[in-house]
Design goal:
Elements lengths: L1 E3 L14 H18 L5 E4 L7 H12 L4 E4 L2 E4 L2 E4 L10 H11 L7 H13 L1 H9 L2 H15 L9 E4 L6 E6 L2 E5 L17
Parallel strand pairs: 1-2, 2-3, 5-6, 6-8
Antiparallel strand pairs: 4-5, 7-8
Length: 201
């Protein structure tokens, strides 16, 4: 079983020529994984960078034609593990605000060549790492996630041993809040710290 926990693709900063090419590339990548996982399961939890409306339509078509891929808008529970993207860890998030935030991202557009170059320069300076580490300090971030879940999924702690999320670009594991352990998978962005995790199901 494979869980893709959101922002698997970043259409805003794609280096491919246009949105259509980026979506085609994403679809091709997913199709390879679907073939590789024949007879098993892939759960795709949508994040803010990949909730683009046109891509969501592609995901629906892929999932409809596959017995491998299942797409989830916000979260999925597998056994005692809960998976969500993690953009609910932004300050001040509640279900209504997250829905509004996602609506804006669903209409996002790929940045042009100068925007992408600027992004690379900022990335190379390490400013992004510093921002994420300050904004998403571990205990505060877990606190924001639990407050969101308390409102969005009342009773979510019942039967939950582990909660996995991403979004923050700050990987960690085994942060305990009550009886639940929290884990963050980090980011594959350069130097951010990528931490794919195994889980029991």
């Amino acid at each position: 079983m494979l869980v893709l926990n959101g922002d698997t693709f970043d259409f805003r900063w794609s280096t491919l020529p246009c949105e259509a090419a980026s979506i085609a590339g994403a679809r091709s990548w997913l199709e390879r994984w679907i073939r590789r996982f024949e007879g098993r399961e892939i759960h795709y939890v949508v994040g803010n960078h990949d909730c683009l409306g046109t891509f969501r339509e592609e995901l629906k078509v892929l999932a409809a034609g596959s017995n491998v891929l299942t797409v989830h808008d916000s979260h999925v529970r597998l056994g005692s593990s809960l998976f969500l993207h993690g953009d609910c860890s932004n300050r001040g998030m509640n279900p209504a605000r997250l829905a509004a935030y996602r609506k804006v991202w669903s209409k996002d557009r790929q940045r042009g060549i100068w925007g992408r170059r600027f992004y690379r320069v900022v990335d190379a300076t390490g400013a992004g790492i510093l921002f994420h580490r300050c904004y998403f300090q571990q205990a505060a971030t877990v606190g924001r996630v639990t407050r969101y879940l308390d409102e969005a999924l009342p009773g979510w702690r019942n039967g939950t041993s582990d909660c996995y999320f991403g979004h923050t670009h700050v990987p960690f594991r085994d942060h305990r809040d009550g009886e639940v352990r929290f884990h963050n998978t980090g980011s594959a962005t350069r130097k951010m710290g990528f931490q794919p995790l195994r889980f029991d199901c």
